[in-house]
Structure to design on (278 residues):
């Protein structure tokens, strides 16, 4: 079993099952030491509880970084999710340069949009900056909306293979490994299109006709956990997609749980998948 020290940079949404409150338990279940750099603290996520109380933590970043650099801390991987402003991206670039071990992995989930729309609080300047930021990464994990926003392609809900192929072609210019989520061509199907150094592969799975906030964070965290456990990109995608689908199955019949994905009860299964002796 690998034991990697991962730094995840994303917000703390106190309520809402997303970002750090999802990444920490999932990465721990995958057997890794998880360090956090919170980009901000929000009373809830921005997806439906009204206007959250927000404390941006940008001003704390340089003090935290100085201390880490003075203590010679290093990370095996850095995984970013929801950030909040473009200054966070500059700090993370510095972290990539100074606090990653040689050959350490840089994983960026652009976490800024879904269903054709940017999340509340983001604009096109942020989306463009995120596109540039992705070009520093080894692996990027956009959904189709984020992919379109970062590459300037007009979003379309009905996907065709030609459209997705063109989008993937543009994303391949940003990063060597692309994990594009939400790619399905039939009503009852969704999937993940992977490009590993230009070699493409599509994993198709059943679609549950309802979406939940934080689904992308559950998928990304399980993917990072499995990938850093030594799984190939494709194996990690299968593990993360199957885990996410099972989590959604636990959630979708409960309208009162609209705000997040009930992933907790599926963690033992994820651990079993990763660590069972073959
Ligand atoms: O990645 C989902 C997410 C994370 N953090 C915050 C959000 C959202 C989605 O709306 O608002 C603060």
């Amino acid at each position: 079993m690998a034991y990697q020290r991962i730094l995840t940079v994303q917000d703390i949404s106190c309520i809402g099952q997303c970002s750090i409150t999802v990444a920490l338990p999932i990465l721990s279940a995958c057997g890794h030491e998880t360090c956090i750099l919170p980009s901000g603290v929000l009373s809830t996520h921005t997806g439906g509880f009204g206007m959250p109380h927000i404390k941006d933590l940008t001003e704390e970043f340089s003090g935290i970084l100085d201390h880490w650099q003075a203590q010679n801390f290093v990370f095996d991987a850095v995984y970013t999710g929801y950030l909040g402003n473009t200054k966070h991206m500059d700090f993370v670039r510095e972290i990539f340069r100074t606090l990653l071990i040689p050959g350490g992995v840089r994983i960026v989930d652009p976490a800024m949009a879904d269903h054709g729309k940017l999340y509340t609080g983001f604009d096109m300047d942020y989306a463009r900056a995120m596109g540039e930021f992705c070009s520093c990464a080894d692996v990027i994990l956009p959904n189709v909306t984020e992919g379109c926003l970062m590459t300037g392609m007009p979003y379309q809900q009905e996907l065709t293979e030609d459209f997705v192929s063109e989008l993937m072609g543009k994303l391949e210019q940003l990063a060597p490994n692309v994990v594009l989520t939400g790619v399905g061509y039939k009503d009852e199907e969704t999937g993940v299109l992977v490009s590993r150094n230009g070699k493409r592969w599509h994993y198709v799975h059943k679609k549950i006709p309802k979406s939940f906030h934080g689904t992308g964070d559950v998928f990304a965290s399980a993917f990072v956990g499995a990938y850093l456990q030594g799984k190939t990109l494709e194996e990690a995608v299968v593990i993360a997609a199957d885990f996410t689908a099972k989590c959604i199955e636990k959630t979708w019949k409960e309208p009162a749980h609209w705000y997040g994905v009930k992933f907790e009860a599926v963690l033992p299964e994820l651990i079993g998948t990763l660590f069972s002796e073959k």
User: Anything to note?
Assistant: The radius of gyration is 17 Å. Residues 223 and 237 are 6 Å apart (CA to CA). The first helix runs from residue 20 to 29. The chain has a mean pLDDT of 96.
